UniProtKB/TrEMBL annotation:
Listed GO MF terms: DNA binding; DNA-binding transcription factor activity
Residue ranges constituting the HTH lysR-type domain according to the UniProt record: 23-80
Family membership: Belongs to the LysR transcriptional regulatory family.
Keywords (A to Z) from UniProt: DNA-binding, Transcription, Transcription regulation
SUPFAM superfamilies: Periplasmic binding protein-like II, Winged helix' DNA-binding domain
Record-linked PROSITE patterns: HTH_LYSR
Organism expressing this protein natively: Streptomyces venezuelae (strain ATCC 10712 / CBS 650.69 / DSM 40230 / JCM 4526 / NBRC 13096 / PD 04745)
Coiled coil: none
Protein name (record): Putative LysR-family transcriptional regulator
InterPro entries: LysR_HTH_N, LysR_subst-bd, WH-like_DNA-bd_sf, WH_DNA-bd_sf
A GO CC annotation given for this chain: protein-DNA complex
């Protein structure tokens, strides 16, 4: 965010002129954050502003445009029809402004990369490609919607995890790795001694999830595809506590990428899945047009390692993906 000299009004020097109206980027940024949070207080905190200052910026923008952008509700705010029409163009203006500033920055900064899907250990793959890539500044996103918003707002440069529809416009993603998935289950499970399992054999078991299934697309799609009717779970406190919960009940199972290092949890068994083998798709995601010079280096490093390690081998007759695979890097 561009800071303005004390005592001056909101930055006019970077204000794009649209239809004879000078739009202030600080006001647009306040509008976009408030639209994302649906709450002025939370949006103000994101921007390190007081709620009063944020409200004033939005009020000035509404006055300038001659229309209300938000309906004030008891629990927050909601976009009006005019606000919904403004949102995507406002995001594009802010993205262009951020790109302009980045293009003339005197010092190179690290490439900011968020990962998500932490239980599935995304850092394993990034560690393999981080050597050839330039310096990375790593962060942890909550989920795909959260990292998508951060990319569109310019808070990060790239993200790494499982991408699935719907994806906001303005983002590009490329497939990096397809990883076989194993079933993890209690040693007391009736199928625990099998050398391999077909996914349909798990339909009478309980799929144990590390959170709400409506936020865990891969597990939900697996259960729907292979007829697993019973689904339950708890709060995600990390891999070891989660697997301890799986091992505690002989009817429970869950899924993990085959190369995830398992913690030492007594009474746990990992069994390969076959006919078909579910594949977990890891992708690199970024805002289309991001000019950061490190982005192409990271993408090239991912593509090179994918070729060397044969990460993208896929046979639709023996493997299963919830979606058609995205184009590789």
């Amino acid at each position: 965010m561009i800071q303005q000299p004390a005592g001056e009004p909101d930055n006019q020097r970077l204000s794009p002129k649209v239809g004879g109206v000078d739009l202030d980027t600080a006001q647009l940024r306040a509008f976009v954050h408030a639209a994302r949070e649906a709450h002025f207080g939370r949006a103000a905190a994101d921007l390190s502003l007081t709620q009063q200052a944020l409200s004033k910026r939005i009020a000035r923008l509404e006055s300038l445009l001659g229309t209300r952008l938000f309906e004030r509700l008891g629990h927050g705010v909601a976009l009006t029809e005019a606000g919904r029409r403004l949102l995507d163009p406002a995001r594009r203006v802010l993205a262009a402004t951020d790109d302009a500033v980045a293009a003339v920055a005197s010092e190179e900064r690290p490439l900011r990369v968020d990962v998500w899907g932490h239980l599935y250990a995304p850092m394993r793959t990034l560690r393999q490609v981080a050597g050839p890539a330039r310096e990375l500044e790593l962060g942890h996103g909550r989920d795909l919607p959260a990292v998508s918003a951060a990319l569109l707002h310019g808070d990060i440069d790239a993200a790494f995890g499982r991408v699935h529809p719907p994806l906001p416009t303005g983002l590009t993603h490329r497939l990096v790795r397809l990883e076989p998935v194993d079933a993890v289950l209690s040693a007391g499970h009736p199928l625990a001694a099998e050398p391999a399992l077909r996914p349909e054999q798990l339909r009478d078991s309980v799929l144990w999830a590390p959170g709400a299934l409506d936020r865990l697309d891969f597990l939900r799609r697996f259960a729907d595809r292979f007829g697993v009717r019973e689904r339950a779970g708890s709060v995600n406190l990390g891999l070891a506590p989660f697997l301890t919960e799986v091992a505690a009940d002989p009817r429970r199972f869950s899924l993990l990428p085959a190369d995830v290092p398992l913690p030492d949890v007594p009474g746990l068994r990992s069994v390969p899945l076959v006919d078909p083998t579910p594949m977990y798709a890891w992708s690199l995601l970024w805002r289309t047009g991001n000019p950061h010079p490190g982005l192409s280096g990271l993408a090239a490093a991912c593509a090179g390692e994918a070729g060397r390690s044969r990460w993208l081998e896929y046979d639709p007759t023996r493997d299963w993906l919830p979606d058609d695979p995205a184009p590789p890097l």
